[in-house]
Amino acid sequence: MKFDNLKLKGLFNRVVFNKMEDNDSTDIQAYIKKVFNDGSANPDPTLLHQFNQLVVETADQIAKPMVTNLLSLFATVSKEQRGNLKELRIPQKNKAKVVWSATGSGVDLVRVEGKKSIFAVPTHLSTGFYYEPLDLVKDSVDQFNKLVKDVANAKVRLYFDKVNELSNAAVTSGRIPSANVLSGANLTLTQYNKLSSVLQRYGGRPLFIADSLMIDYFAMQQATDSTIKNLLTDGIKEELLTALNPSTIGRTTAVNLVNPFTDSTNSKVELPVNKGYMFAGGVDQKPFSIVEYGGLRQLHDQDIEDERVKLKLIQDVSINLLFGEAIGLITEDAAISL
């Protein structure tokens, strides 16, 4: 037995986007109990597939502005239908010889010397995910919202993980210049500002994207640096004292990367906390190209031991690094850890 997809989509959207009507809280609780019973018995396979598919489709709606707002800071982001080809223009002013392209299991070096364009070739990217049915049954509205948002964040991190792989490969190959790479122990705000001055030459205010721990590490040095602390405005002082995520570091704008714990002891997260990216702001040619083919898909299974529902999230996408000169990488080897 399946429920009406259109009506369920409407219910899911109202819950997630905080537009619930009179009976929506009761309806979603009743629906979840239909799918998962009391949270311990095996759910009906047909209802479970429908639930997971609609969760993923709803999460994709949330992920879309997240992808646009975050990734478009350093990537040209577009969508295509599956089966279509998209032509990517190669930046000519830097006479690119190669680009780095993401694959399902790693990265490939693609030679483009003398070419003015290449075609974006989609690959299957996937990540694992699980949720607890009992949590959904006990606290349906809040846990449903959390599940959808967690899936959306997982998709963004899937993209960012490939950006990380491409960046590492480009550093090794010299595609990202050594002047753009800052790595070492106990890095200083002076070193950070020197890197930002490199990227400023490409135009605009540089953007720094990193885990909250790394943003705090450099942001708080503004209050202790013998020169800069005397130049801080009251607004920045207030931000350092009270803001959940400081957004101003020197002449850069900091953007916090959502990076949740992946274990029950709060000792592991999905992405490195000691690595950050700096991108030239206000440039026409973004370093990365991201072409998304179709929407997020899922495969699922339930573990008979712990009763968790396990999802495999799949997205067809082409991610290419076209312009490494406008990227900075920062790795702090000692001072930042969970």
Question: What would you note in describing this structure?
Answer:
- This protein is α+β, with helices and mostly antiparallel strands.
- The chain has eight helices and 14 strands.
- It has helices at 5-16, 24-36, 45-71, 133-138, 140-173, 189-200, 212-221, 234-242; strands at 75-80, 86-89, 98-102, 107-111, 117-120, 123-131, 181-184, 207-210, 248-249, 252-256, 275-279, 288-302, 309-321, 327-332.
- Helix 1 (5-16) packs across helix 2, helix 1 packs across helix 3 (45-71) and helix 3 (45-71) crosses helix 5 (140-173).
- It is globular and about 60 Å long.
- The mean pLDDT is 89.
How would you summarize this macromolecular structure in one to three sentences?
The chain has 338 residues and is an alpha+beta fold.
